[in-house]
Structure of Alkaline phosphatase:
Amino acid sequence: MFWICLTLASLTTAVMAVTKEDISYQRELTGDYWLDGAHGELQKALENQNRGVAKNIILFIGDGMGPPSVTAGRILAGQLQGKKGEEFSLTFEKFPQTGLSKTYAVDEQVTDSAAAATAFLCGVKTNRKILGLNARAQDGNCSSTTGANVHSILRWATNAGKSTGIVTTTRITHATPAGAYAHSPDRDWESDRLIPSSEKQCKDIAYQLIKENSDINVILGGGRAYFYPENYTDPDPDPKFNTSEVSRTDGLNLIQEWVAEKKEKGVFVYNRQGLDQVDVSSTDYLLGLFAQGHMSFDVERNASREPALHQMVEKAVRILQRNKNGFFLLVEGGRIDSAHHDTQPVKAIHDVVAMDKAVKMVLDLTDSSDTLTVVTADHSHVMSIAGYATRGNPIFALSDLDGVINTKRTLDHLPFTTLVYANGPGYKVPRPNITEVETGNVNYVSQSAVPMKSETHGGEDVAIYAHGPQSFLYAGVHEQSYIPVAMAYASCIGPYAKEENKLCARPAQNIPNVENSSSRTSIPRQLYILLTYLSLIYITCHRLVL
């Protein structure tokens, strides 16, 4: 009996010693694994019908985060955790509701970020380069803005008594954040210096933020230089940044004016240390500008001086959620777009992963029973995931075929990377041999098919991921302008603030949070039963031997 028990004990130990990665791969070889997974997803879909009212709304925009960027981000995030990567899921990919957004502008097949921001924040599609104005406004024409103003969901939330905030890794006056508060016929009018003398009757975007939107509670991002007058000494100057191109000519120090207006209720910070010291329990207004221009790419960020996106988001949520009426928060992972324009996928995809970390932070701080969280993009880019690389091949590496660098399928018999671009600055003739090139280097410029100084946006639909009250409204294919309208309905604000809104006319009865319910065990049923059986035998034998 002793030897039988010893054998069974050894067998149990051996079975349980199988690595998680091996088990995962073996599971994939069976049909039951995929069927069980689909069944689990189906059960979640049937359960997740949260029809309550959204007290809080959080909108994440991955600037330029089209489907290829999401897929590459998923793979990178998995590989950073030692997995093959393809089987991994980003936090927002686990949201129970998904849809698609059609991103074209009124005048262009492929949108820019300004027209897109006006759509997903104001509910109105407009022309290229236009912010917070309908399509009657003309690019660079101030007189065309008369009667063309449209208001954003941030303004709707403020009017409903909610707190509001904007967090971005770009300049706070850049297209996406500016879409929440500005009205401008030219997205580039971020400082008064940048407005032509013939159009000075229009106010620049930085001025509009400070002087006309002083009720925004949290403002975090970059772009300090656009708020200071010329010859002003920046508190943390970047020697590479030319302030003379953007500093103000009107003599205004907008940051100083903001501080004076807020007095003890507000705090201005310009580095990571300052942000860390902010007391969220006593701060009603927070202005943080952490760079003279854009903030750094996450993979290049100096963590001791510049906060990460998720750190800014945490501070913002903790301040905003003190309002019993709820809040609206716009969060942008803005440097994804910048890197794609330079065809630098390492920077772009690391910023996708950084934004996903911010999404996770939001889920940790909020309750999906009363918080609607939506993740989407303003547009895509022309990066694609090419070739037939082996499962688990590093996402920034050369595409391989059966474990060998793939040159058999290329007519010039030269290798290529998995991530390539349809156009951009990486075009070279003849195509260079990049066999010895470190394509995973942060500054690597990916090859492109068409020569351009700057890579372009892509026009395909982008995904919408939704979680929380009324999130099912985002299932299907929608105009990009639908996004804030559905949010307003879910939160009973803006056009749906009146009692005619049936959702808001009845008492709010938010259902329990079922969206975070744990899924079924990831171990196949047969293996689970075997392990349980062997464990029982082991325990029984152990007692007998003793």
